[in-house]
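Feature request disguised as a bug report, sorry. It would help if multi-protein outputs had a clear separator. Right now it looks like this:
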Amino acid sequence: MLALCLSAALSVGSLTVYAATEQWNDASLTPAFTTKTAVSEHTDWADWKANWDKIKTNYEQVALIPGSDFSKLNFGWYSKEKANEAVVRIADNKDMKNAKEFKGTCTEGTVINGVQYYSNKVTADGFEPNTTYYYQVKLNGKWQQAHEYKTGDSHNFSFMYVGDPQIGASKGQVPNESAVEQSEDVAARNDAYNWNKTLNSALAQHPEINFLVSPGDQINEPAGNNAEKHLLQEYEYSGYLSATAFRNLPQAVAIGNHDCLTTSYQNHFNVPNPFTAETNSTVAGHGYYYTYGSALFIVINANNYNAADHKALVEKAVKENPNAKWRIVVMHQDIYGSGLDHSDSDGIILRNQLTPIFDANDIDVVLQGHDHTYARTYQLTSDGKQYDDFAEYKVGQHGQDHKVLDNKLKSDSAFKEYYTSQNRCYTIADMKQGTLVNPEGVFYMTSNSATGSKFYNLIEQQQDYVAARSQTWRPTYSVINITDDKFTINTYDAQTGTPIDEAYSIIKR
């Protein structure tokens, strides 16, 4: 599975080998944060550069993650000291009077630059709707600064949906201020700055946002069996987690093909209900699920190409939450995207396996990333026919079958045509736009880059399943609002806050 994961990270399995475009977001050319509600500690590019060495080595930042249900909140963080128990305390006041303590685990984690760090995980509960709380974590034996956490309305909530922050992916690009190709470290500095900008802008424009959902690729650096690679990965995680917004904003992130190569993902993020029964899990961790109000979120580790694992996860999550009004899957690889690099190749290798699973379990929405382009589909269903599952090209003993498939697709035009036909396994159930009432099928979204660290072109021929798509070469984000009977998604330009597409809504009565 590690080899399969690495091949995905290197785009093995594509019909043609493509690379990121020269379009990217150069932080040296972007304005400083100007919103009054911006929360970044370093709002100016020059200030950010001057402080980067401190930012990138701040490995002990706390990640808030949604708990298994609305009343819970998970915490994950690194520490240098090993404690018998990880501890968080929660209060309804900033002075932390009468705070309640919650204890969890402190286990051996990542070694960074020769130093052993420990992974701390705690779950707190008892949270009520529309209430302000304060929390503190105990780091290396000392209570840290108290931070605010506000709960929302479980019957009317919003979350921010972003694509591929991929901190460090702009390496090799040439910034305006130096005319020298960016190293991995400089690229992480650039992308982390823009990541802060996107989060701050989105929260200033949409203060109603309650949490964040990412379909993966938080970082860029592939795995390597040397200390330098591990150090770069943790620089990128530090840059990703440096967003001050994350002190107050929970995040539910999937495992991308660039995240799946090391244990750092599962050491940083304390996900709820991890599906440890996966038979082909990656070293980064597992899929998981949680509820928030009337919605059930199922996060798939799509770097695992064994669809039986995903079927078991979906069925388990649905069985344990039979009354959830909305069923939303989050996954990295876009099985119905429109990008040049992945949407007609490795992006569809699981399509004929996952689509029937989503249909059988009445999934409403699938949120995807991976293709660094924007696309949304019509309502789609499986066509109910039997297709070749290409199992021999999915799970090989040594993970080499992806490369075999890649070579066969490029060398054999008849096989390429057959492969494509066997993955055209869908029916367009509803082509209405705007607001749909009780539609059939599943709605699929592919998000563009939220940082501008890397963009891809759109595929030349727009697929028939795509209702709208775009490549603006600018970071974007979506805001999804869910009530007990309505799902609505809007997508915005990160800098200006203007919509890049019309709203799409589903009403269930």
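(second protein starts here, but nothing in the output says so)
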Amino acid sequence: MASMSSGLVRPHSSKIGFLHRALDAAVVMVSLAMALQFTHGLEFGGQYAQAGVWGVLIFMMIGGARHLYSSWRLVPIHEAVSATLVTWFWTAVALVFLAFLSKSSSEYSRLATLVWFVLAPVGLATVRVMLRLTLNSLRASGRNTRTLAIAGKTKLGKQVVEKVQRTPWLGMNFIGYFDDRLATRDCKHAANDAAGIGRFEELVTLAREGKVDYIYITLPMKAENRIVELVNELSDTTASVYLVPNFFIFDLLHGKMSSLDGIPVLSLHESPFYGVDGWVKRVEDLVVASLILGIIALPMAVIALGVKLTSPGPVLFKQRRYGLNGAVVEVWKFRSMSVCEDGDQIMQASKGDMRITPFGAFLRKTSLDELPQFFNVLQGTMSVVGPRPHAVSHNEQYRKLIRGYMLRHKVKPGITGWAQISGWRGETETLDKMEMRVKFDLEYVQNWSLWLDIKIIFMTVFKGFVNKNAY
């Protein structure tokens, strides 16, 4: 999932928000009626109608908080669907919690409720996709379009225009660049293709006449005075004006706008697990780890016996690793070597490594040596999914060589991760291999979602255990 950035700028409102809400409300109610009919042949009404109304209200409330009904014109459809599914998940949790508090859960059919909880998100996602495809088709054919002007003939402005021209379904018609600087001026930030069609005063005139809908200001940030002056002049128009910041940090870890008691701030390095998402991640870890430990308890006992009988030494090997926020934690593994190294200098395991026992080689090849780390997950020092933890000495080595290396510790280390299922597992004997692993780890931090974790767990089952690079 490489960069999943939805675009450089995003409008703040949507004129079809009411239609979204109406369709979502219809889907929630209809899916409940279908669930009753399919499971028990019951008519929709009574306490079920009340549950449907609560479902709609809670979904709308959570959806509003998650900006589900804001403009998604520039957002990839998979992100819109993912946001919808997450919103329904929390709606279902809230409904179950309310039924428990009101002691009314016995009044509802568990089968019908389960079917409703499955049908509704399918319907909500389908409606989102169909509505998006319809709007995209209309915009590509020239309907539901908006005019776009770029204030600042810069390379950043050119990138915005290229984005618009590559995606006609955005419904944005570019009318030209506007810049007070002469086209012949030597400016390292200038776009090198076409001259702007006018000066800022002409842009303001067009905006006042209602001939331009969106204005993206792409001037370099050092031109603060010119930006302020232009914004003040455009405040006398009805055009929507957006400032496209040219921060290099967006390429490192996508910045997000937030506020500090009304003061706009740009977050550059932050954990994705603050607030509600942190609770989601912790519940996911507890549920998944508990289920897996229940399944693998007997195999773990057999493996422990095998380790003990095939080589002298302890069954478990505990090694210090960097955890969340760089704190040192102890990570458990089945011992696979004849030594238990945990010092300032640790040599990575390599092919034909004499330290690895015969039984340990099998464990490492199949990743079975990692199974005790599910206990680390229950302890809260690790997650099921996250960047794989490296030895402390390796962290100290690579943090000096790879830019942004320590940002992978903005989340808990994981038993499996996006880098591992993407092929970057095993020995990193060259710097470029470690750089690729870190790149995928940072992509995970940037783009985390519950559904991404589910995808990684699913892919780990089929391709993550046995790997040719693991030894």
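Even a blank line would do. Unrelated, but nice: The chain has 14 helices and ten strands.
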